[in-house]
Amino acid sequence: MNFVSQLEESLRDLGSQARSEGRASANSSTFRAGGYLPILREASERGLLTLRKLQGNYAAQVRKAAQGGYCSSDQPTTRIFCNQDVLRPFLFACNFSEAPENLVEISINAIQLLLSAEAVFLSDAVQIVRVLTIQSSNVSLGEKTRLHMLQICTVVINYTLMAELGSFENEQDKGLDALTEEKGNIDGLDEELFTQACVLCLKLTQSSMRRKATSQMGSMWTAASSTLSGATVGSQEQKSKGIRASTSMKTIRRASNATLRQLVSMIFDKVCSVITIDREGISARQHKRLEVESTVASKLFMDLCVLAEAKCGGDDGVIKGSGPLSKAIQQTNLVPLPRSMSLELLDGILSQNKALFSSACSFFETSFPMLLRSIACPIVTTILLSDCYSSVDIADNLGDNRIEEEPSSNEIDEEFSKSQQRIDGNGEKVCIEAFSLLIRSVHIAKTIILTYGHYADFGGECHILLSSLLRFLNRLSEVYRGFTNFEVRYMIRLE
């Protein structure tokens, strides 16, 4: 099998690279090779022995199937290679924050190979994301490896969601009885797994910002030193390296934000698809897993609402949410998501999962329509009547310095993450993030009104939202109609 040969080659490469790294770093103080690399070599050798044994079992089952021992539907699959000894070397190689990049890259490629062959237990998914989170702090990794880590994180979450409805249950008839008993109940996506995925995205986003700031300070120091010493040779090369580093960090940050958006969309798409499933046609174990996923989705929705409302902490500075996103911020002491990005994620959830929020489902303990009515709608109303009003009052002092065009999504995220401020003609600070919050709040209000306004259960909330939106737009037109370039036809009058 091509899968087995590739996996065997990865284990051999891991062992040989660990041996060469051990010799190269034996006298180095930057990498502790004493207790790490020898164990990694032993783990890779043990994995090779186990892989050969599993390959023999697979070949025996293929011969039985050819002789008529199995029907066509019971042909052995690559899931028979689910084994801790095969996966453990790759996890162990990534379990050290200063691991060399070549070992990390070999391990990530092998993990992706195992996932594509469905040769990973669902309960091991959280361990894969956990070691990826450890590697997010590895300063020796390049842009390609970091982007690959985000890709693997998405594959792992999709793997647990798609394999959730019993794809492993029939494997007991294919020689996995002992393995299943050893692992116990096969898990899927739960709150811990999604929390680790959020930690990975947040750490890569903010570590790229810190590395960019450090790179910029280093470039400034180099330029100052060159100026003082009168040296001009290599200045252009230093400048080009700084530009490439800045571009790389920007790419990682945008990829991390895009991955987080994709993960949020995946979990809500899965929960929304459950509505059409016959409750009587699934097992108790499957029903329990669906309840766990719906709980993760509801807590994530409430986390985004809390972050959008800017009630991220009390006097002690502790995040007040209890879902996976809030736990990720609490565990790592990272800066919370920008309010505009939280509103953007809520907007995407509400626009893409109309069936989930328009009617209650007996599958779920939490009522998603109630979350929309009692939490999301009041928060959007409050933002329109308070934060956006404040933004317009600040803009009232700008004179003719009006905004020429609406920024794109990536530009909004970039400006918000930088937390830059500019100073207007009157000497007052105007935070750029205010405009992104304004745009997102108006857009999510429009989404709620147009998508859920015709449902009787949302009539009152949508009426309040529409009134708040019109009051805000009326205030905006009053502020900007004094501008020299303001066009009268855009004015809104409320009688």
Quick description:
Helices cover 66% and strands 1% of the residues. It has 17 helices and 2 strands. The radius of gyration is 27 Å and the shape is flat.
Written account of the structure:
- The chain has 495 residues and is mainly alpha-helical.
- It is 66% helix and 1% strand.
- The protein contains 17 helices and 2 strands.
- The chain has helices spanning 2-24, 37-66, 84-93, 101-116, 125-135, 143-162, 177-183, 191-229, 235-273, 284-308, 324-332, 339-352, 354-358, 368-395, 409-418, 433-452, 459-480; strands at residues 421-423, 429-431.
- The protein has a two-stranded antiparallel ribbon.
- 35% of the residues are buried.
Overall body shape: flat
Number of helical stretches of at least 4 residues: 17
Mean pLDDT: 76
Strand content: under 5%
Structural class by SSE content? mainly alpha
Spatial gap, N to C terminus = 76 Å
Helix-strand layout with pairing:
Blueprint: H1 2-24, H2 37-66, H3 84-93, H4 101-116, H5 125-135, H6 143-162, H7 177-183, H8 191-229, H9 235-273, H10 284-308, H11 324-332, H12 339-352, H13 354-358, H14 368-395, H15 409-418, E1 421-423, E2 429-431, H16 433-452, H17 459-480
Antiparallel strand pairs: 1-2
Helix pairs in contact: 1-2, 1-4, 2-3, 3-4, 4-6, 5-6, 5-8, 6-8, 6-9, 8-9, 8-11, 9-10, 9-12, 10-12, 10-14, 12-16, 14-16, 14-17, 16-17
